[in-house]
Amino acid sequence: MAKTKWTEAMVETMLRILYEQVLQGERAENGFKKKAWTAAKEGLRVIHNIDLEASQLKAKWSNLKKDYDTYTAIKNNSGFGWDNIQGVPTAPDSVWDAYLKAHPEAEKFCL
């Protein structure tokens, strides 16, 4: 199975459909029900003409959750500010350097 190149539009479509599925009760305690993944898979096929496996959608969801957790940790960390114009966390280089040494996964949020 080839690695999928997700576009912003594809991610937005998946998230919108999964949100609609939550509103319809298709979320269990430990994640989404099969019907939710099927709906997201079908929506991506129809809207973006891409045929993905549920496992690919689940992997993307898992990565998005990890990114959100990393982002939240940065935002709530002492020493970081917020740039309202760019919508990104800010900090002096010394703060970023120390943080990235302990949390290399956060590099994508460092501008």
UniProtKB/TrEMBL annotation:
Domain of life the protein comes from: Eukaryota
Pfam families membership: Myb_DNA-bind_3 (PF12776)
Signal peptide start and end residues: none
InterPro entries, per database record: Myb/SANT-like_dom
Residue stretches making up the Myb/SANT-like domain: 5-99
Protein name: Myb/SANT-like domain-containing protein
UniProt organism field: Choiromyces venosus 120613-1
Lineage: Eukaryota, Fungi, Dikarya, Ascomycota, Pezizomycotina
